[in-house]
Design a protein that fits this description.
Number of helices: 11
Bound molecules: zinc ion
Strand content: 15-25%
Distance between the termini: 25 Å
Shape: globular
CATH topology of the largest domain: Aminopeptidase
Number of domains: 2
Radius of gyration: 23 Å
Number of strands: 16
Length: 412
């Protein structure tokens, strides 16, 4: 176990060295660093003689086949893209745990009643194209071709990036996996919250994932000279966006038992000290365990934005980028994880919902899904301070091993 844990840490460090920025970890979809990290994953997969390939969107996929050619697939997965200024563990840890489990099975010639696959998803964070789950939506057959026309901050389209990395748009559909071919899905991931630290536990079960809606909001006013334009005659797009942001906070706080709401990205134009802002574009991210409540709140917030735009005579565009309902994790798979935790000496099994979205959201459309959360120190993530102790990595590996062995036993 110690050697295998050390290998995971070594690989986490190696991936953490690959970045588009000199000062921090950044691997947004389709960049040089993103492609390089995918190549490294391919090398590791091939070194353990797994059938390995990169699909059109850039998912890195490997398979350890069952002797039964008609067997179903069981997938372990997580993502290898990152946000800007990321930590080393969010995403890669789940992939590397999957590879360790597969390597053990391969080296010990354990017969599989299902094809075991690990998929490193190309894009979960959505940092470049403001759309999460590009990778897993391809697998589930829910890739929306409209996304191909989306452009990044430099005007480069998703289609251009996909093709520059050797992907072919025509292959996206055939990269999906049919529901009837799938036995299930398992995603180990850092918790990204403080619960495991507070409970002094290495890992816990995830019972479900919150529903999430992401909106692109554009406010269009009129540019004007900051020195000459009277205050009462301005159409300041930033002031409209600011008023809206305070309304988002107020509505979020009022419903804090079941809602979180965030404006995390904002562009102000022309972004010049002496010009009244004529245009502001920002995101809105809202999440709740209750899918129908989230739909209701999304409408309330849109109405509020319309009210502000009319009052201030500022143009408004409201584009829902994506919306995913809440996901229930599969009880059958969860029971096997509980067994795996007990065998690993964890007798206190905690089960919590995930406020963060994960690839399991997309895969839940075609297969039963399950997740294991791993403690990250102080609950910090999306941050260079993100840290998982080697003891917790070792414990999570033990649980992953046990879980897959339970699954093999159940299906043999
Ligand atoms: Zn993640």
């Amino acid at each position: 176990m110690k050697l295998r844990t050390a290998r995971i840490i070594e690989r986490l460090n190696a991936l953490g060295e690959i970045s588009d920025s000199k000062n921090c970890i950044s691997r947004a979809y389709g960049t040089k660093a993103h492609t390089a990290s995918g190549n490294l994953l391919i090398k590791w997969m091939q070194n353990i003689s797994l059938q390995t390939y990169r699909d059109a969107i850039g998912n890195i996929r490997c398979i350890l086949p069952s002797l039964n050619p008609n067997a179903k697939y069981f997938i372990i997965g997580s993502h290898y893209d990152t946000v800007f200024n990321a930590g080393k563990y969010d995403g890669p840890l789940g992939i590397l745990l999957g590879l360790e489990v597969m390597q053990y099975i391969s080296e010990n010639n354990i017969q599989l009643p299902f094809h075991l696959s690990t998929i490193a998803f190309a894009d979960e964070e959505g940092a470049r194209y403001n759309t999460a789950y590009l990778g897993s939506s391809t697998i589930s057959g829910h890739f929306d071709r409209c996304w191909l026309n989306r452009t990044d901050d430099h005007g480069v389209s998703l289609k251009e990036v996909l093709e520059a990395n050797g992907g072919q748009v025509v292959n996206i559909d055939s990269d999906s996996i049919a529901r009837e071919q799938l036995l299930g899905y398992f995603e180990p991931h850092i918790e990204q919250g403080p619960v495991l630290c507070n409970e002094d536990l290495s890992v816990c079960l995830v019972n479900g994932i919150a529903s999430q809606t992401r909106v692109d909001v554009h406010w269009t006013g009129i540019n004007g000279h900051a020195g000459t334009y009277p205050m009462n005659h301005r159409n300041d797009a930033f002031c409209a966006a600011s008023e809206f942001s305070l309304a988002v906070e107020q509505i979020g706080k009022y419903n804090s038992d079941k809602l979180v709401a965030t404006i995390g990205k904002l562009n102000i134009m022309p972004n010049t000290p002496n010009v009244i802002p004529g245009k502001v574009e920002h995101t809105l991210d809202i999440r709740s365990k209750d899918s129908s409540f989230l739909v209701e709140i999304s409408r309330t917030l849109e109405d509020k934005a319309i009210e502000i735009s009319k009052k201030r005579k500022i143009g408004l565009e409201w584009n829902i980028l994506h919306s995913t309902p809440s996901v229930q994790c599969d009880e059958g798979l969860n029971q096997l994880i509980r067994n795996g935790m007990k065998k690993a000496g964890i007798h206190k099994t905690l089960e919590i919902p995930s406020g963060a979205g994960h690839d399991a959201v997309m895969i839940s459309r075609i297969a039963p899904v399950s997740m294991l959360f791993i403690r990250c120190q102080e609950g910090i993530s999306h941050n260079p301070l993100e840290y998982v102790t080697s003891e917790d990595i070792e414990k999570s590996l033990e649980v992953c091993d046990n879980f897959v062995h339970e699954l093999i036993h159940q299906n043999s």
